[in-house]
Amino acid sequence: MTNDGLRLIAAAMAIGFGTIGPGIGLGLLVNSALGAMGRNPEAAGQVQINMFIGIAVTEALGIFALVVSLLIGFKIF
Amino acid sequence: MEKLGINATWLLAQVINFGLLLFILWRFAYKPVLGMLNARKQKIQESLEYAEKVKADAAAQQKEFERKLEETRRETQAAAAAAAQVSEKEREAILAQARADARKMIDQAREQIEYERKQMLSELRGEVVRLSMLATQKVVSASLDENAHRRLVNEFLAQADQLGTQN
Amino acid sequence: MKRWLPIIVVLALFLVPAFILPKFGSAAVTASVAVSPEVLFTLGPLEITNTLLTSWIVMILIVLFVYFATRKISLVPGGAQNVLELIVEMWDGLGQGVAGERSRKFFPIVTTIFIYVLFSNLLGLVPGFGPIGIIPVQEGHSAPDGIITFDLPGGLAEALGPKPKAAGEHSAAEAEVVLAPFVRAPSTDINMTLALALISVIMTQIFGMQVVGVFKYWMKFFNFAKIGQFFGALFKGKVKIGLLAFGFIDLFVGLLEFFSEMVKIISFTFRLFGNIFAGEVVLLIMAFLSSTFVFFGFPFPFYALELFVGFMQAFVFAILTLVFMTIATTAHSAEEHA
Question: Which of C153 and C45 is assigned the larger pLDDT?
């Protein structure tokens, strides 16, 4: 196995495993936000805004994985 | 950084692009559009208020109309009631008049009858006296003079009258 | 006729490539996936990349759109004015809902971000943007199979386009295949997304300092208040361990907040870049599948998906900017009251 091959595998693993957690987190987050909106439609606007904040924070983890994957994949380290 | 393609010049160019776009949009899009939106909002509000006013006016007119209608109805009813009362009174008066008339006529008739009866009675009495005088004359033609005879008959009549009142 | 239309379209998608593709050799289509934008030509000291060129095209399109929308502005809207009003009203409403009175301050930046990102994302989906470009061919070599080439007139070839890379740096084959598209969506360039992220985060700090006050605003990040109180008590001869402990917790929380501002830049940058870049790559791969399986229908669902993603990313970028600006101008004073 060449160095390039190892690098590509590492990049793929970084993004692949790195998005599992944020994926679960986003699912839970949107699930409960939609539940809250369904139960209390008057507060939907506020819930939506807070949901977006939550999504931003949760998704940041996935984006870290993407960044690391890019850094590895494009031989920046 | 190099391999990700980040480059200070290009970054700066993009920042300038954005700044330029921000200025253009601010000056030529947001200001007129927001102004227009506000103007429209005001216009709609005015129209709504006007519509509300018209509606209120219409409602007031409707109420006024209903009030007048009610008043007219009441007046008509009152007039009808008054008319009915008047006619009732008239009827009563006519009836009373008629009754009085009838009574008067009955009274007159009764008086007439009474008078006639009395007349008949006196006539009868006269006839009885004449008849009895005639009879008595026949029976006792000589024994009694005219005056004594008359006296006797009158006595008899007085007794008979007395008897009649007793009965 | 209308009922048969879909079937005819699907048949055409099968048959047309079956006739066309053999002329080019279906497997020979090659493409490059490059993160960094390609330089098209140099203008003085400035190297003009295709993403920069496209961002100017985007700006021209936006200006044209705004021109047509506001040319005959009237109380009864029509055509382009409706669309512009829809966008402006949407962000005005969202701003009022989230930020209340302060939304007038944030509105221009947030809405501009939305419009710019939306146009950049959607422009990248115009067919023909990827595959038409400049390909440098070394002397004595011919262009790869499947690529139709036209020679540029002599002088123009020198001035335009990326130079063929020296053989030592990359393998010759790799250097040959790099195609520089004339136009490429600006959102697939990290410079553009990073510029927007920097503007968003820096403007957030500026608004925060404007509303909360410069010193008070930075207190959020470097909170020495409790530690100061501890030393104040120490001078009076009292040792309050609780104050010291809470002081360090505050300091740590403040540092976390400071790093979260840095994280915001990274997440803004790579969220937009990652989504749009990945979308383009997916479309490219679907195009490959189309040529391999001789069916041109593969990219269709992904075009629909990318349209949605392009809109969604523009919306998310703008609304997160709005929310972060609102938080920066309120949270601290609210904390003080608590």
Answer: C45
- Give a yes or no: residue C48 inside a domain: yes
Shortest CA distance to A63 belongs to which of A32, A30, A26, A31?
A26
Element (H, E) at B48: helix B31-139
Radius of gyration in angstroms for the set of CA atoms belonging to chain B, rounded to a whole number: 63
The C-alpha of A30 sits at a distance from chain B's nearest C-alpha, in angstroms, of 32
φ and ψ of C133, to 5 deg:
-175, -160
**Kind of pairing, strands C39-43 and C46-49?**
antiparallel
* The total number of residues written for chain B in this structure: 167
Q: Does C46 touch chain B (CB under 8 A)?
A: yes
Residue C116 domain-assigned? yes
- Check: CB of residue B29 under 8 Å from CB of residue C207: no
User: Mean pLDDT across the stretch C237-258?
Assistant: 84
Q: Which residue has the higher pLDDT, B86 or C237?
A: B86
Rg from Cα positions in chain A: 17
Would you say domain A3-73 falls under CATH 1.20.140.10? Answer: no
% of chain C with per-residue pLDDT over 70: 76
Q: What angle do CA B132, B133, B138 make, to 5 degrees?
A: 95
Neighbours of chain C (3+ CB pairs under 8 A): A, B
Q: Are residues C283 and C296 in contact, defined by beta-carbon separation less than 8 angstroms?
A: no
Count the domains in chain C: 1
**What's the CA gap between C59 and C45, in Å, rounded?**
22
Closest CA to A55 of B29, B149, C312: C312
Do the Cβ atoms of C24 and C145 come closer than 8 Å?
A: yes
Tell me whether residue C211 is in a domain. Answer: yes
Round to whole Å and give the CA distance between C325 and C328: 5
What is the span of the domain harbouring residue C251? 21-337
Residues of A in contact with C316 (CB under 8 A): 52, 55-56
The answer to whether residue C115 neighbours chain B at the CB level (below 8 Å) is yes
Instruction: Report the C-alpha gap between C121 and C317 in whole angstroms.
Output: 12
β-strand C180-181 against C39-43: which pairing, if any? unpaired
Residue B69: CB atoms within 10 Å: 10
Q: Using one digit for the tens of pLDDT, what is the confidence trace for B93-127? A: 999 999 999 999 999 999 999 999 899 888 888 88
Tell whether C16 is covered by a domain: no
Global confidence as pTM = 0.72
Pair A14, A62: CB distance under 8 Å: no
